[in-house]
Each structure stands twice: as structure tokens, then as C-alpha cells.
């Protein structure tokens, strides 16, 4: 029987934003659609960026290669993933600060941009994913709770509590656009909310601007 183990894990690397990244089963394999997160950050040209849930480090490192003067911090809840991201940053010779943190728990300074690709697959959908995903990629990088938006709600609440006003750039499930907009406006009623499509014309990127300190 042919193994469904992802070929990226077999060869040990993947190309992302024209760069090569080491990947192991400790991290979610970077997808082409996630490159849109990088492009959105680069278009904004921020002075400081937090890559939340960095995984292999592909987002933070790609930004650092293109914006060398921007302060970049990358955080992860998984120690193994964080160590891999550090290896990739060393390979690409970029200056990034890495922090072990469950979302914003160990982050104490505001940023111009928070970019993130948090787990967003509803728990009940995971058993029906392709075996190459559900059997090999880390569940912690897939499971977004009952409706897939659990971690984003937690992040919105943390940002509001900290009274920060970053530009927020998030990858979401292509079926979650309406849910994402409604939830964002619950926490930030006066924010500018936009959903952008990926190259397959699927609604994929949630942008929040003008987050007020108080709403």
C-alpha cells in the first residue's frame, strides 16, 4: 500500500516565497496560499511585525528577507516548532526574535502588524481530511475548535485587553468569511474589516485596520 506521508516531510524541505525551509512532522507544511500573508505585510511596510504561531518560521523569515530593517518577532506554543524556526532563520541569516508563547501570553509590546495563520479547521472536520494531512501533520496546527474560530476569538480578546491597535492579517478557512467578519466586529465594532481572496478566488485573508484602543 502506497504511503500517504507528505513528500515534503520525506525530502525534508519545502519552497515558500521563493525560499527553502526545513520542515519536520513538528510543523504544519507551508501552503502556497499562505504566501498572500507575506505579500500583505510587505505592502504595508511596517516598522514592527509579530508572526504569531510561526511554525517553520516561513512567514517571519520571508518578511525579514524582504524588509531587513523591520523589527520582527516570531512566537510559537510548540517548543519543537520554535526550535525548527530558529534553524531556518539561522540558515537564511535573518535577525528575528523568537518567543515561546501561547498566543499573546508572553508578548508584552505592541506591533504595527500582527500576522498569523492560526489553526482554523473545525474539530469535527479533521477526521475527514486527506490522510496525508490528518495522519501526519500536527493536530495542534489544524484544530480550530468547534467552529474553527476558537483561537481567533481568543486572540481578538487578548488584543482588546492589551489595548493594542495593530493591523491584523489572518489566514482563515475559505468558508469562514462571514463568520470571521462578524466575530471581528464583535470585538472591534469600529474597525475596518476586509476579506481578500487567494489565487483560487477563495476568501482566505482577513484584514483588520483601525483597531481602537477602546471599543
Describe the protein.
- The protein has 215 residues and is of the alpha/beta class.
- It has a single domain (7-209), classed as Rossmann fold.
- The protein contains 7 helices and 9 strands, in the order αββαβαβαββααβαββ.
- It has helices at 7-11, 35-44, 58-66, 79-92, 131-134, 150-162, 177-187; strands at residues 13-16, 19-22, 48-52, 71-76, 97-100, 113-116, 167-171, 192-197, 203-209.
- It has a 7-stranded mixed sheet with strand order 5-4-3-6-7-9-8, sandwiched between helices. A two-stranded antiparallel sheet has the order 1-2.
- A hairpin with a 5-residue loop joins strand 8 (192-197) and strand 9 (203-209).
- Helix 2 packs parallel to helix 3.
- The chain is globular.
- The model has no long low-confidence stretch (mean pLDDT 91).
In short:
This protein is an alpha/beta fold and 215 residues long. Helix content is 31%, strand content 21%. The chain has 7 helices and 9 strands.
Instruction: Please tell me the overall pLDDT.
Output: 91
Helix content: 25-40%
Number of strands: 9
Question: What is the CATH homology-level superfamily?
Answer: Vaccinia Virus protein VP39
Main β sheet profile: 7 strands, mixed
As residue ranges, the low-confidence spans are none
Named CATH architecture? 3-Layer(aba) Sandwich
Distance between the termini: 56 Å
Rounded to the nearest angstrom, the radius of gyration is: 16 Å
Amino acid at each position: 500500500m502506497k504511503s500517504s506521508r507528505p513528500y515534503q516531510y520525506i525530502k525534508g524541505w519545502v519552497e515558500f516565497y521563493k525560499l527553502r525551509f526545513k520542515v519536520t512532522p513538528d510543523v504544519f507544511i507551508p501552503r502556497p496560499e499562505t504566501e498572500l500573508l507575506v505579500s500583505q505585510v510587505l505592502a504595508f511596510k511596517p516598522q514592527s511585525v509579530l508572526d504569531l504561531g510561526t511554525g517553520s518560521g516561513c512567514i517571519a523569515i520571508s518578511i525579514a528577507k524582504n524588509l531587513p530593517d523591520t523589527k520582527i518577532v516570531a512566537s510559537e506554543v510548540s517548543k519543537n516548532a520554535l526550535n525548527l524556526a530558529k534553524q531556518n532563520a539561522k540558515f537564511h541569516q535573518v535577525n528575528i526574535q523568537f518567543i515561546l508563547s501561547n498566543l499573546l501570553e508572553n508578548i508584552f509590546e505592541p506591533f504595527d502588524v500582527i500576522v498569523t495563520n492560526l489553526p482554523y479547521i473545525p474539530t469535527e472536520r479533521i477526521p475527514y481530511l486527506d490522510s496525508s494531512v490528518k495522519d501526519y501533520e500536527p493536530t495542534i496546527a489544524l484544530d480550530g475548535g468547534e467552529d474553527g474560530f476558537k483561537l481567533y476569538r481568543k486572540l481578538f480578546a487578548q488584543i482588546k485587553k492589551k489595548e493594542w491597535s495593530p493591523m491584523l492579517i489572518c489566514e482563515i478557512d475559505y468558508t469562514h468569511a462571514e463568520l470571521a467578519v462578524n466575530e471581528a466586529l464583535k470585538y472591534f465594532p469600529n474597525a475596518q474589516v476586509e476579506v481578500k481572496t487567494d489565487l483560487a478566488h477563495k476568501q482566505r485573508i482577513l484584514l483588520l485596520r483601525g483597531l481602537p484602543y477602546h471599543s
